[in-house]
Amino acid sequence: MPEILIQNIDIALTMDDQRRRLSAVDLRLRDGIIAEIGSDLSTTGERISGRGCVVTPGLVNTHHHLYQNLTRAVPGAQDALLFGWLKRLYPIWSAFTPDDIHVSAQLGLAELAFSGCSLTSDHLYLYPNGSRLEDTIEAAGDIGMRFQPTRGAMSIGESAGGLPPDSLVEDERAILDDMIRVVDRFHDAAEGSMCRVALAPCSPFSVSRELMRDSALLARDKGVMLHTHLAENDEDIAYSLAQFGCRPGQYAEDLGWTGPDVWHAHCVKLDAEEIDLFARTRTGVAHCPCSNCRLGSGIAPLRAMRDARVPVGLGVDGSASNDMASLISEARQAMLLQRVAQGADAMSAYEALEIATRGGAEVLGRPDVGQLAVGKRADIAIWDVTGVASSGSWDPAALLLAGPAQVKHLFVEGRQIIRDGTLATMDLPGLLERHQKATTRLMQLA
Questions:
Q1: Residues 6+ apart with CB under 8 A from 24
Q2: Most exposed: 172, 207, 345, 436, by fewest CB within 10 Å?
Q3: Which residues form the signal peptide (predicted)?
């Protein structure tokens, strides 16, 4: 891989252990890592100007459903609460093909890249018409994104008292067998890995206690992480109390779903005891503020979780419940919601950006990313602060207060994914055309 020198950077927000803010600095990228940070560095390789730019680690997305990019702003789901929203969309998702999931993931990953994201997880929990997890894994390879796919699952359909239609659920033995298959085939635990697989039964209302327990046992045996939805809204809490006789935190703990190898999406309704449980066990949270607003779920206790030292990252959630996938906008929304709830001093722009970078890396078990430091992977976002969005800003590094919504350049493992604001790894017009054809077909079937 050729050496790249990013030189004359106005401001670099490192998110390193000292949380250094560097000015007039260069970054040397070599063999997928940050090889040197200094001033007046030289190179025989490519030079990228950082003049007029703020440079950050690549942003980390801890929760998404990439397949949903084909079902944004669906009438009948636009103004529904979570359970009603799902009931509207399940029949449409039943018609998805492997090609649909692949092209949806490609576009969703491209959208994330434009917002500065270099590493994303994805929660794929339905597999209609022969779809498989590799439909998304191949898409991540096409775009060049560092990827943490999760083998999700639903096993309790309507006929058994669950929420999803029977056509979208799977046999639990088959689920576990496929979890073993995808981990054995695709999981790479090495430092700098471009693909790590996690296990992710969808939610307490769509799988059995036995599958939750067995997935946890399997994950520990395989050395992979665990992910699911938890405590998303009031309906979620009511379901847990009615069906399991306990709150979601207790349910998770009883089944082995706490620990540094576990992260839960949403957690809007965690109470003080559950926050303490997550802090003591180092259980991670994927905070999805835009989706929580979109579905009226509430404001997650992010300030309380951070103060208790719960590991927290950000997630855009599915594009059908956001309905966008901009991680930099998600960071701004996280900051603003905490200020709405607790005052203007509740969260700074810098803390929210730290959650979007180093925080997400910690949640996903990736200490090799999320920082600008020598030896860390070369996942780097370069933000042009000479344009309209930053004009007049006295602090260009306060990107979440006044800054661009899209990156100028994005590097993943030292490879340029976004170059001068355009996708460098795929034909974007052709991708958009294929994506729209898939959307039109699904609309005609609905």
A1: 8, 9, 10, 39
A2: 345
A3: none
Separation of alpha carbons 119 and 145, rounded Å: 6
In this structure, are strands 4-13 and 46-49 parallel, antiparallel, or unpaired?
Answer: parallel
Q: How far apart are CA 283 and CA 292, in angstroms?
A: 20
pLDDT in the model for residue 12 = 98
The backbone torsions φ and ψ at residue 146, rounded to the nearest 5 degrees and listed phi first, read -70, 135
CA atoms 404, 405, 409, 412: torsion sign: positive
AA identity, residue 221: D
Q: Are 384 and 53 in contact (CB under 8 A)?
A: yes
CA distance 392 to 359: 29
The number of residues in the chain equals: 446
The token pair at 308 is: 């208790």
> Which residue type does 30 have?
R
Report how far residue 65's alpha carbon sits from residue 404's, in angstroms, rounded to the nearest whole number.
Answer: 25
DSSP class of 58 = P
Strands 4-13 and 53-57: parallel
Beta-carbon contacts of residue 131 (< 8 Å; ≥ 6 apart) = 96, 97, 98, 100, 101
Distance CA 329, CA 406 (A): 10
With residue 423 as reference, give the H or E element that holds it. Answer: strand 422-423
pTM listed for this prediction:
0.98
Say which DSSP state 160 is in: G
Q: Are strands 284-287 and 312-314 parallel, antiparallel or unpaired?
A: parallel
Nearest alpha carbon to residue 298 among 206, 228, 236:
236
pLDDT for 269-293, tens place per residue? 999 999 999 999 999 999 999 999 9
- Beta-carbon contacts of 42 under 8 Å, excluding residues fewer than 6 positions away, are 5
DSSP assignments along 68-91, one per residue: GGGS-S-TTTTT--HHHHHHHHHH
Strands (E), 33-187: 33-38, 46-49, 53-57, 59-61, 117-124, 146-153
The answer to whether the CB of 125 falls within 8 A of the CB of 202 is yes
Contacts of residue 46, Cβ cutoff 8 Å, sequence gap at least 6: 2, 3, 4, 5
CB 228 within 8 A of CB 202: yes
